[in-house]
Structure formats: structure tokens, C-alpha cells
Amino acid sequence: APAYVVRGDALLGLGQMDAAIQSYNNAMVFDPQLSAPLFGLAEAYRLLANKDKSLHYYRLFLRSTGPDKEKWRMDRAAKMIQVMGGTP
Q1: CA dihedral sign, ordered 24, 43, 82, 84
Q2: What is the secondary structure of 26-75 as a DSSP string?
């Protein structure tokens, strides 16, 4: 699962959103406890200008309890929710 997250991050950086989304979804199939794929999905949908899905995944990420949950991602998720006019 972590390899799919890394792959998703790379694809996100390359602007290949559909492939990144698929990779993050694959990561969640292999390890549903991970938090990073939720953050990646939120970022991908934000870059695709899909505000509703982006907010949904940022909120899921903030509520998640995965062992891979990093503070910088929590800070960014909270900030992006605020910027997009949502509530956590």
C-alpha cells in the first residue's frame, strides 16, 4: 500500500490526476487504515477543481487515525478546507 501512495504522489506531481486517483484507491484497498491516500485524493480532486470531493477527502483525512498521518498534512488539510470555505 505505501508504494501505491508514493506512486500516487509522483503521478500527482506529474499532473496525471486520473492515474494518481487510481493509485490512491489501490493503496486503500491494500491497507484501509492508511491516512495518506485520503490526503492524496483530496489534493487530486482539488487540482481537478472538484471542490465537493476535495472537501470530502480532506475531512476524511482529518478524521482518520492511520499510523502514517503527518502533522504537515493535517495543517494543510485544515488550511485547504478553510480556503475553500468549508468547515472541518
Answers
A1: negative
A2: HHHHH-TT-SHHHHHHHHHHHHTT-HHHHHHHHHHHHH---TT--HHHHH
Give the pLDDT band of residue 86 (cuts 50, 70, 90): confident
Contact yes or no for 55/84 (Cβ under 8 A) = yes
Specify the pTM.
Answer: 0.94
| Mean pLDDT score, 38-48 | 98
Half-sphere exposure of 51 (CA within 13 A, CB side): 7
**82 by DSSP, 3-state: which?**
helix
